[in-house]
Design goal:
heterodimer; A: alpha+beta; PmbA/TldD fold; 2 domains; 5-stranded mixed beta barrel; globular; B: alpha+beta; 7-stranded mixed sheet; 10 helices; about 20% helix
């Protein structure tokens, strides 16, 4: 498709009327493979080839049209449809799209891949999953085991009437292992990094090595599942709370990432994904967390799931601190949202993070890589500092209000801390709090040795809805006096 | 205007003849496999999002995805391709992919839980609508919501045909096309206080749209009253149909799956084990016959019109589970046409005896929950749920709305809420189409009455 897309599109675009002030074309081609072995049975391998194009036209208003027919006729019809929608919106839009400045930069991005998945064979990949399942052992209390592997190759070409041209190629790898154990009327699920794929990174087969997927994860996940079915229920009381990176990523995602999305602050998501307790006047003066809290938007971090060089409006992406020493500095908003905020009298800045889930969705403000910067405390120092506390790992339940303030999160696995020492495992651990105050209770931030680069393929938002890949790197972090509680059984 | 010639875009696959053409080109019986199948999901959709009564994004999407699968003995391989709309090109690409998949069959192990239909089957459902042009919806919103005093209108329109179709080399042919629209919007008073309304169907009527918008406008002043803060504790609540949809949708997440029941992770394990039951007035079924979802699966199995899930508060003799062919093979039971995720697509909760329109009067004093938000399990095996109140929830005294409330979190057990806690259900279950648009527009639905519950646990 890409061989002819640009020449075809430019030829078709020449026929647009003079009233057209801007057009853009974003072609996306994606190949994916999904493999699953459950209870040592390999399910049917699933491949997918997805390709199509999104055309944007500004002519009075702005219109988008998406189609998988990239022939001359298909592109012509798609341009025409986008232009018709643009005309229908003229004078009726949230901003005068004709006055928005757009970048005219060019460049490329390619994921850093050491061992491409395509160099392995299908039987090899299935054998890896069989090995991981087998490594969970034969204990009869383990009633279900499931290992999956998803690899995705994405190629995106973006070019505009203003001369922008960016070409980006990504390789994504997502391994996952989930074990269910049952004993004495108790059933527990333990996973390698979350039931919603926390260990996902850019790269090839080397991602499996970084995850310990084929080496350590089978025995560890099985052991911890068995610990959980014999464990007491998590107590209900206020405790110091140490969150490991695979729960920190969810905490960051829900109570920092979503509230800082500028389109949400501007009200676009109020009919669906919600609003934000953050308002435009808070940037530059609101104390979001304790002075230990430093949060970065970092699209340049190697291997992280949402690394890229340009967003889907063609803006060049650069690392920036959103929260520095606890102070809120800038939102997650692309060029269009920044212009809309300025039009309301708030020059709050932003970052290049306008992204789309695929060729058939228009770009909106997303999280991309959103990270908590490492601090100075070792894991041992944090545990030792707690007289009575709890360490929680791996999210399994998440809920937060539509302003992204009152939250309640549950984890798969937890251990009590008593007098500075790790103590018994407890099951069904949950905690709840309020974003606006929770981050101010951040008491210790782990050093780089405690940090992991994680993420999720499943961040949902937008109308029409879009599921997008995001990355979250974080150290372990300790919060004082949190409302902790257990499950019902 | 541009002078481009309209081609055969993916919109072509919203017509049965084009799908038949593709199927006929691909699905010849061949000795190398036992079955080749083709599953189509296509749509031609207009998406319009509005904020502050102005247009934020207008998008048209034409998409068609075909999944081609080959099966030989106990082996299956499949691949999904985007279609261009030109049958010759699409048939060639699918044929090339089929050849690759046949090669994969030699590389994979047998799958003892693979089932395929015993015989060829056919079905055809084609529900046409009268849908507005996107340009017309933009103009109507501008006319009806854009005037002074301009309401804080934020909403989303999605409309167009949605197609599911299936064919295989054994002779099965299934076509399912539904033309519909779904427009929901909020009229905001301020911050998180809003009246949420939906207008959905197959035949657009500007007068009906205007009436719904006017009705919503009349409700907004109620939100101007000073909001109350409720303390954590147990409350008598009236759950609107929308709130019930959210609770039943969460219950559907693993609650009725045969695999989830057999592996012990279902949210209804206590019902399964007989440790608890719902109120006898709680009867739930998967009722495809009265919904809009297709009556066939992606692998060509037929789906029955009704599957009992909860009968008079208890697990029915048939098990009350949705059994995919794969789980059926694994656990040696009959399948009942469930998809591989074993989620209900047309959930139906029977009505009770609270008269339509008497919900607040029956509540008397307590909390009216218009909408819930971000539900999840806080203890899945216990069926314990958590979530937030949202939009226009009100404190009610003597059957009258007194004041909106600040959002509150609930944490309660499904088997308690609809068991000992159930006061009653309204007598007219309402059909609510699924408005999700992740990847594609959905054809699932939930039909439910409103409910009154005692002891609803608010926690934060």
């Amino acid at each position: 498709m890409f061989e002819t897309l640009e020449s075809n599109a430019r030829r078709v675009a020449e026929r647009l009327p003079a009233s057209t002030t801007h057009w853009a074309v974003r072609g996306v081609r994606e190949f994916s493979e999904q493999l699953c072995v459950r209870q040592s049975v390999a399910e049917a391998p699933r491949r997918a080839h997805d390709e199509g194009v999104m055309v944007t036209v500004v002519d009075g208003g702005m219109g988008y049209a998406a189609c998988s027919d990239t022939s001359d006729a298909g592109l012509a019809a798609t341009f025409e449809r986008a232009r018709a929608l643009a005309r229908a919106g003229a004078g009726r839009c949230v901003i005068d799209y004709e006055r928005v400045t757009r970048p005219a930069v060019s460049g490329t991005y390619t994921s850093n891949v050491e061992r491409p998945a395509a160099r392995s064979t299908l039987p090899e990949r299935l054998a890896w999953l069989q090995e991981v399942c087998a490594a969970t052992g034969t204990d009869p209390r383990i009633v279900d085991r499931r290992a999956t592997l998803r690899n995705v190759s994405t190629h995106q070409l973006y070019f505009t009437s203003d001369g922008a041209r960016t070409e980006q190629q990504w390789e994504f790898m997502t391994p996952s292992l989930e074990v269910t154990a049952h004993a004495n009327g108790v059933t527990q699920v333990r996973s390698s990094a979350g039931q919603y794929n926390g260990f996902c990174q850019q790269g090839g087969v080397e991602v499996l090595d970084r995850a310990g997927f084929r080496d350590t994860e089978g025995p560890r996940v099985a052991r911890e599942a068995l610990e959980l079915v014999g464990a007491p229920v998590c107590p209900s009381q206020r405790l110091d709370l140490l969150l490991m990176p695979d729960q920190m990523m969810l905490q960051i995602h829900e109570s920092i990432g979503h509230p800082l999305e500028l389109d949400r602050i501007l009200g676009d998501e109020r009919n669906f994904a919600g609003t934000s307790f953050v308002t435009l006047d808070m940037f530059g003066n609101y104390q979001y967390g304790s002075e230990l809290l430093n949060v970065s938007y970092d699209p340049s971090r190697p291997h992280e799931f949402a690394s890229f060089a340009f967003d889907d409006d063609g803006a060049p992406a650069q690392r920036a601190l959103l929260i520095e020493r606890g102070l809120l500095k800038r939102p997650l908003g692309g060029l269009l949202s920044q212009a809309r905020a300025r039009a309301r009298g708030f020059d709050v800045g932003g970052v290049a993070t306008t992204r789309s889930a695929g060729w058939n969705r228009a770009p909106i403000d997303r999280m991309s890589n959103l990270n908590v910067e490492a601090g100075n405390s070792s894991l041992d120092q944090m545990v030792t500092s707690m007289d009575l506390g709890i360490v929680m790992q791996t999210n399994c339940s998440w809920s937060i209000d539509d302003s992204r303030n009152k939250f309640q999160f549950g984890c798969e696995y937890a251990r009590m801390v008593r007098r500075g020492r790790l103590a018994e495992v407890v099951r069904n651990p949950n905690y709840r709090g309020i974003s606006a105050t929770f981050w101010r209770s951040l008491a210790m931030v782990g050093d780089a040795a405690t940090a992991q680069v994680m993420g999720t393929p499943y961040c949902g938002k937008g109308e029409p809805a879009q599921v997008i890949r995001v990355g979250h790197a974080s150290p372990a972090c300790m919060f004082s006096s949190v409302d902790v509680f257990g499950g019902a059984l | 205007m541009m002078d481009g010639t309209a081609g055969r875009t993916p919109e072509a696959y919203t017509h049965a003849a084009q799908f038949e053409e593709l199927a006929d080109a691909l699905l010849r019986a061949e000795a190398s496999v036992d079955r080749t199948s083709l599953y189509l999901r296509a749509e031609a959709s207009d998406f319009l999002r509005f904020n502050h009564a102005a247009l934020r994004q207008a998008t048209t999407v034409q998409q068609a995805y075909a999944t081609i699968a080959v099966e030989r003995g106990l082996r299956r391989a499949e691949s999904t391709l985007t279609l261009s709309g030109e049958p010759g090109i699409d048939a060639r690409r699918l044929q090339e992919e089929r050849t690759l998949l046949v090669g994969q069959l030699d590389l994979i192990p047998d799958d003892p839980w693979l089932l395929r239909p015993d015989a060829a089957t056919r079905s055809h459902r084609d529900e046409r609508g009268t849908l507005p042009a996107a340009e017309g919806v933009i103009a109507q919103v501008h006319e009806l919501a854009g005037g002074e005093p301009k309401p804080d209108f934020v909403g989303f329109y999605a409309g167009g045909p949605v197609i599911h179709a299936f064919a295989d080399s054994l002779g099965s042919r299934h076509w399912h096309r539904v033309e519909s629209f779904h427009f929901d919007w909020c009229l905001y008073h301020r911050a998180d206080k809003a009246v949420k309304t939906a207008y959905a169907g197959r035949h657009w009527d500007k007068t009906a749209f205007a009436a719904k918008l006017e009705d919503a406008k009349r409700q907004v002043p109620l939100l101007q009253r000073e909001a109350r803060t409720l303390s954590p504790g147990k409350y008598r609540v009236a759950l609107s149909v929308s709130a019930m949809v959210d609770l039943l949708a969460l219950l559907s997440w693993g609650g009725f799956s045969l695999k989830a029941r057999r592996t012990g992770v279902s949210s209804l394990m206590r019902l399964e084990r007989g440790d608890a039951h719902f109120d006898p007035r709680f009867t739930l079924e998967e009722a495809l016959g009265s919904g809009t979802a297709p009556a066939f699966t992606a692998t060509g199995f037929l789906r029955p019109e009704r599957v009992a899930l909860v009968q008079d508060g208890k697990m029915p003799a048939t098990g009350g589970t949705l059994n995919s062919p794969r789980s059926a093979a694994e656990y040696h039971v009959q399948h009942n046409g469930a998809g591989e995720e074993e989620f209900p697509d047309s959930l139906h909760l029977a009505g009770g005896n609270i008269a339509h329109g008497a919900l607040l009067e029956t509540l008397d004093t307590g909390l009216y929950v218009s909408n819930l938000w971000y539900l999840n399990y806080s203890d899945r095996q216990a069926g314990r749920m958590t979530g937030m109140t949202r939009f226009a929830c009100f404190w009610v005294e003597h059957g009258r709305l007194i004041a909106p409330i600040h959002v509150m979190r609930f944490d309660d057990e499904a088997l308690r809420m609809f068991g000992a806690g159930l006061v009653g259900l309204t007598d007219s279950p309402e059909f609510r189409p699924n408005s999700d648009t992740y990847g594609s527009r959905q054809l699932a639905s939930i039909t439910t009455p409103a409910a009154i519950i005692d002891g609803f646990q608010l926690t934060l």
